[in-house]
Amino acid sequence: MGRKSAILAVILAIIYFRSNFSKMSNTPVQETEGPVYVAYSMEDMLKSPRDLYKSVKEVAKFVNSAEGKSMSARFKKFGTPREAMDFLAYGDAPTTPKTVPPVAPTEPNSPFSGVNRIQMNEFKKYVEKGDMENFLRLVDSNPRFLVNTGGDVASIVMEGFRYNALHIAAKAGQTEIIAKILELIQNIDFLIRLYGTGADDVTLRKINILDSYLNTPDKGNSDTPLHFASKFGKIGVVRVLTENSATDRTLLNKSGKSALDCAGERYTGEDKDMVQRDIHLAIEGFYVFLHRNPTTGSTQLTVSQKPPATYSTSPTTATVTVSAQAGPFFTEREARDFAKSWQTAGKELKRTDFDKGWERVGRVLAEQSEAMWRETWHFLGSMELLDLGSEQGLGVLEAFLREKRRGNLRNSEISEISTKKSIFRRGIHARKLDFGILDGEKSAEISENLTPDGSDSADDEDDDDIFYDTFSEIPAAAEKSINDPDDTLGSLTDRFAAISIFSPLPPPPPPQWSNSPNFDYSEGEDSFATPPTTPPPTFVADDEPCKIDNDLFEVLAQISSELISKFPLTQDYVQKLGKLTAHDRSTWRPIDSPARCDSRRKI
Amino acid sequence: MSVVEEATDDALYPIAVLIDELRNEDVTLRLNSIRKLSTIALALGVERTRNELIQFLTDTIYDEDEVLLVLAEQLGNFTPLVGGPDHVHCLLLPLENLATVEETVVRDKAVESLRKIADKHSSASLEEHFVPMLRRLATGDWFTSRTSACGLFSVVYPRVSPAIKSELKSMFRTLCRDDTPMVRRAAAAKLGEFAKVFEKTAVIEGLHSSLTDLHVDEQDSVRLLTVESAIAFGTLLDKANKKKLIEPILIELFDDKSWRVRYMVAEKLIEIQNVLGEDMDTTHLVNMYTNLLKDPEGEVRCAATQRLQEFALNLPEDKRQNIICNSLLNVAKELVTDGNQLVKSELAGVIMGLAPLIGKEQTVSELLPIYMQLLNDQTPEVRLNIISSLDKVNEVIGAAQLSTSLLPAIVGLAEDGKWRVRLAIVQFMPLLASQLGQEFFDEKLLPLCLNWLTDHVFSIREASTLIMKELTQKFGGQWASTNIVPKMQKLQKDTNYLQRMTCLFCLNTLSEAMTQEQILKEIMPIVKDLVEDDVPNVRFNAAKSLKRIGKNLTPSTLTSEVKPLLEKLGKDSDFDVRYFSEEAKNSLGL
Prior knowledge:
With 603 residues, chain A is an alpha+beta fold.
């Protein structure tokens, strides 16, 4: 503010001076020798007194007087009185030609106010304790808990040692908090909200913020968050930090030690050796990477400590990407041995299954040698390497299924009217699931149970409850159920159970459903109210099953049911697909198969 | 009896050695022994090669890919070693195995060898041995085997009976609809080649359905390969069928949703134009082309821009000028400000090629503004390309008219920070000199050329000494004495030995464009001085220079002028100097 008005003052002064130029030049100026001093107002040059002082003392006296202070006066020394008068007339113009300074790129003003010490202490407490709820509450109320918008760096949570939130959380071993912080500060929407600017602006800042979080040494021992995690044996934190390629593992602290050097130094548990080993693996471990060129189908194995960059050889071929990773291995030799056995094993499988053959072989080998295994699943829409055997990997899958189901729900709402009209034309490809079609008492019973008011009401409900019998679209199953009259009823109901919520053993409803006002389960099991419209059965890549479903199922089927039961939609998916025989599943064609695409086009 | 046994043992020896070597741990040893395979076969004779060596190779085919690759290649040339066409089929089994391995390079080599030996088969043995193998490959469980099969149809088809022909057709059609994209890709790549060996009348019935299948494939990598196949079909079919069956497919590919496919279309644009051009509505084709020029993907615009001139040249003459001025140039004007530098560079390289096609008047009114705009572009590569097409402008309007606007651009490039850019403009100088005339050159460009002689990058100094020769040839020796020799004299006295060496290099090239009198008068005094330079590098380069310059002198002058200098250098304290002076003496016969 001060600077702006000063500039304005200068301009005004120039105008003033110009209009009075002749008068000024005629005014006799006291020509005294020696230095003179003037006092002037920083804020408004026009308010400045036009007095000349002979000594510092005199001018200082004025500046310190009440009048001087009221205009926040400064003083300046000049060689001659004329220079002093000129200064008062046009500011600094005669000595240094004063132009309007180039407009510095204006920094955006964050819509959020700064965080004070007390608030920061509260924040620190939550980070330390791993109190995710309160952590998120604070960050949501003011993102500046995380980012210092002044320099696009991490906010300092603890003065003195200048710890940022990662330092604190790493020391305390709060893995989840760290993962959340890293996720937030790399989230474009979060940053846009924080800065109040656009995506291009924050993308640049993001790099700086991330680097500042991961690689800033503290003020005491020059430890980075990775040093802390390693020192205190917080293996989960070490893993999260090293997974981020922006983390510099080679930084040294004041004692000249890298994060690896101080592994477990302050760890006191009995399993110190194990912890040190794990930290070593996470920081220095070797990985075997499987690269795939999706165009030519060629594959390549490499061994390295860091994921290699993706590359493209020509515009007509797609980018070669890492599609799976095994490791970390303790030594490069172990990794090379693994790569070698991966290269030689399973030749048959690798030549039969073109897009998952190598992965299937590698997965088994990794299990045998107890190496960690991650691979990409393209249907998820990202190149992220996932371990579906871990909670984190399953979490990603669960989120995907939830999103997919939500999308299906929306679509079915939108298309409901049109499907009503076209349903009869669609013939066997979309038969309405009416259990009356099936002969046999059992299914009739079920049908009655479901609509206790009788068949009339079932008809009334028709419009709301439309089911598509996807089995007619599973070639093998459809063939059997339609053409094979000897198919037992038990098997039929089983098959239908696989896809409908009328299943005799319905999977527990996913929690978010029970919260949703659309689906009311409160009436309990005894109530025979018409169940809500079931979203069409979800296959991961398409409305109908394809090879991807089989590939995914094979992996999920190996996971302990205990772990999978934490992910209801995934569990649901596994249960449904598990009802089918391996043979049925193996007939599912790749999603881009011409035969499959043709039949879809006809529909 | 014992004699016979002994002979057998002797004959077995090479195989025993081979087996030993093939079991060696060291891959390079195994590679070496596989490379010697033909020698071993020769030693064994045809019968034993067939019965033992080939048998052995078939059984022990599991090795590193490098070894397999060499093996696959060798077997393709084995026909004479197994006893010629009558027995060539014994090579099929090992090659069939190699055609199914995981490594693409090995498979491709095996297919190449199989194609080679297919020609060596008689028709009968082709049906008896080759076709069953092809059948096995094409219907195998492994996608690697099916992929390899695709490449073998075209060598078999022309030589088999109609019954087998129709079987092959249906096999190929099945491969075009394979579940594995890699197989479909191989089929799409070979479709055009296969169509070419068809009887003309049978192409439509036999393969058109496969083309239509492949061009709507889900995988863009498959669709992009059908561009070439469709072009091949186009050249085979008669007008009516081409219009009815091929044109719609190509038109769809122009609008494909994947930019990789559109890129391929742009790459093959001229071939497409040749196939469709004569029968298709020109406006429609031009519209499709301008769409490529406006494509959202930079790579596509680049590829399309590259073909601007050729496309225009191929247009029917009566409509050409109209189309260029009304359609193509309108789009080109947008490309001048394209966000992608590469697109602008391509445009700068081709745009002036349109000048001869549209005549002087249109060039001045339409092309010149584009030219000027590109000349002032921020990217050096763009300016370089546009200056390089100066000769084309010259043909139409005379470059002299442009000299005032060219100069700043040339000077800018001459001082560009990237040495490759400077190098390009250095090499372009002789052409500029001839286009713009001596007067302009002497006044404006010569100072630049002389400056380059002292550039801090060696390549620039070297290139500028080379152009001095061309310039001297163009403007004459007298020109060199007045313009270049003074600079040489200056360099000769430079404190930096590198500059003194540049001086020598320049004299080398100059001497080739000057008369003997001029050499004696202008060049030799400078060399004489440098022979006594303090730095050995300069002295031995002086020896080298004498060798080159001496080639342009008569024997008598050599003896009188050059020999004493070389003898002096021959007594130098530095080994290298003595060496090069000796070399110069020898090559000049002194």
